[in-house]
Structure formats: structure tokens, C-alpha cells
Amino acid sequence: MTAPLPHTLGPPVVCAPLAVERRALDGDALAGVRLVRTGMGRRAAGTARALAVDGPRPVLVAGVAGALAPHLEPGDVVVADEVRDGTGARGPVAVPTARPLAAALRALGLRVHVGPVVSTPQVVDGDQRIALATTGALVVDMESADLAAAAAGGPFAVVRVVVDTPGAPLLRPGTPVRGLTALRTLRRAAPALRTWLDATGPRTVRLAEPRSFCAGVERAIEIVDRALDRYGAPVYVRRQIVHNAHVVRRLTDRGAVFVQEVDEVPPGAHVVLAAHGVSPAVRADADARGLSVVDATCPLVAKVHTEVRRHARRGESVLLIGHSDHEEVEGTVGEAPARVTVVEDEESARTVEVPDPTRVAYAMQTTLAVDEAERIAAILRERFPSIAAPRQDDICYATTNRQRAIRAVSADVDLVIVVGSPNSSNSRRLAEVAARQGVPAHLVDDVSELDLSWLAGVGRVGLSAGASAPDDLVDEVVSCLSGLGPVTVTATSTGSEHVRFTLPKEVSH
Known about the structure:
single chain; Rossmann fold; 4 domains; five-stranded mixed beta barrel; about 35% helix; oxidoreductase; iron; 4-hydroxy-3-methylbut-2-enyl diphosphate reductase
């Protein structure tokens, strides 16, 4: 049964402190949107109180501001991820939609920054500007902190265009020219502001369960963490330990050094082999360099390697269902290159040839879409009746479970978002499985890749994450959606996981 949508919002308002800012925004892009001149400085507080009387509504503050950070230039756009009250009378207001809004502005060709905006009762310069810059705020204005109240708990965003900088203060001869530049930029920004406004509204979010890290990924990450704890930095890792940019970045910050091949690792150093597995040739190269190897290959990938070796020893041809450019497939093929042929799709399955059709087996990449892989396997079984199948499913339990969950979620939503890096096979397969259910589905590395235009008119969103994506990235997407309007979060569970793999002896104690 479909969960009811939460309460509605009032009509949106775009707040522009000055008349020239309001005129810059008054065009086709914001046609039909209420544009309010709030007044400068503390006069905005009265406007905010008047707007808040009607209850929660989307409020977007747009105008010019003074730069605090030295790298900002006149005409640069700043999207607030936090609005601070420079008087200290109120706490900061978080703006969780900042990064998608910034992406929409960048798509217009604008130079955009994301960071804190601070509001002060008066124009600041000199020592005051320097002091505010030390707090990490990017720009200063005189209204945004007051106008946050206008949303009355509804969606709130701030977009400011730099007009003056520490090197070119407001009271200088060049200010009129810089002001015109800023106002032109503000007008150019209007379509992105409309995109944000159109994306606001109440909605439900259905979380797929299970999602995010599987046991193999957790094991691989823990191996690198423990290796760093035990041996100290640097610890080298061949390829990405798992296919997720955020995980790699965190481990890099800890002292892990990611390399393409083991010949980049200094002789005698410690090297971790990634979860996707490697060919025997890679292991031989590591031995030749005297490297201390810690093997983080997922046990389920290792099982496929074992199957391929067994079939090859028997003199059988192995048809490996998978993607030839994937690291897991490269490593598996390396177990018996003369006997393994990669079968990527149904057409390949219909045309592949083997020396002896009576001595053939098949195996699978562990991160394939279950339905697609089974169709390919069915063709192979029909063409080669005596083909040997895997003793147990090659597609890992985590891939299967996440695909089952995303199918269940996709049955009752308007849009599916899958969190995962683009080089993650299992994450891409989740988006493809959802799309095959007839619902628009998109893969995003994190919330910054969330396209606000996807959300216009969408009341129900399905959300999952690939087995290599941290769950905190899912939390950020939920937070962003909550920043666009009231959200009801439900979970669609198709099972639970309690698998845990043992660690290799090199890091287990």
C-alpha cells in the first residue's frame, strides 16, 4: 500500500534584498514565482516575520554579497551550505540542498563555490572582514540569517553573487562595474533557482534493504585499515580496494597509496590486493619484487577463480559471463587465459564457439544483474546441453539481495536513485534493474550529482546503494531530500544479511 504523502507547502518565494536584485531576477525563468524585495539589513527580519505567518514554504534568498575568502572574484556565485548569524544571537542554519543547487548553477557555465554565508548587521571591511574570514565563511551579507525564518521550517536556500572582495572593497571606484557584473550573473542564475524551486515539495522516500556495504567490501576496507595500523603508512594497494571514490579518498587520507600495477610498489613494501581479485601473473610479479602481500580478494570472487582452475585442469573450455573490461573478469581470465572466453551478452552467447562442445563449463562475474546473467546462461545451456554449471551461484549473495530489494522498491515509486561510483559494476546493475521495472533510475556518486530536475513533480523516491558505497552517502541524499520539503522515510526489506568473512593472517591479530 502506498504511504500517504506528508503535508503540503505554501507557494514559494524568492527574496531579493534590493530593488536592483529583484529586477535582475524578474524574467521568464522565474515567471509566476513571487519575488519579494525584503529591504536591506535588519529590515529583512520584518519581511521574514510577515512571510512566516502563512506557514512553511520554499524560500530562496538571492542577491549580491561581499567575499571573505581570498580566492573569490567578482561575479563568482556562492551557494550557502550553512547560514550563520554574525551577532551570535542564533545558531547556524544548515542548507542540505547546497551541492545539488551548486551543480545546477555550474551547468549554466557559472563559477560556483559552496560554503558558509555569514550575516552581519552592517557592512564590514578591514579588520572585521579579516576576522570573519578566519571563521571559514565564504561571503558576508546583511539579510540571509534573518530571512531563514521566512521559510517557517520549509525548504531554504541562499545564492549570493560576489560584488566586492578583500582586495577590492565596496567603497571603491570600480564598484559600479563589479555590481553590474554581479547583477548579470544573478540574472543568468535564475534558471537554476527555478529548478530548485520546482524540486521542492513533500515526498516519501523508500529505502531498499539491504543496501550499501557487503561483507566482502567491509572485509577489504578493514584489511587496509588494519594494515595501516600494523605496518604504518604507506601501505600500497593495487587498483581501488573497492570501486568507490569516497572509500579510496578516506584510505588515501590515512596513508594508503593506490597504484595501477605492482611494479609501481617499492621492493619489499607492503601491498594489498583489491577485493576484485588478481591473476596469478600479478601474484608472481609481487613475489619477484619481494613484496609483502596482503590478499583482500573477496572470498566469493576467490570461489570463481577456484572453479575456473578446476575446469581448466580437466581440459574444459570455460565461458565466463561478465564484462571483459572489469577488474574481476581480468583476474579470473588470468587463471587460464587459453581456456577462458568472456561472454558479455546474449548475442555473444549465441555465437561463441568452443573446441569441444561436450567439454565446456560456464562461470559468472559476481556483480552481474541476476536476470540478465540468467538469460545468457540459458542460451549457453541450450547450445551446449552438457555444459557444467557452477556448483553454487557465482553471483554473490549481496548482489542478488540488493537487486531483489531494488525491484521491490521500484514497484511503487516515481524515481529511483542508486548511490555508487560509476566504475562499480554492482551499483550500475542496480540502476539498470530498476530501469527495467519501468521507472526512471539514476546512479549518483554522492549528493552533489543529484540532478534537481529529476525531482520536479516526483512524490515517491526509491533509494538504494551499491555494495561498495558507504551508507552515510545515502543519509546525505535523504538529508538533501528533506531540505526540499517534508519527507516520510519508509524501508522496504527483502531480507537481512549476517555474513562476515575472516581476515587474512597478516592482519588478523
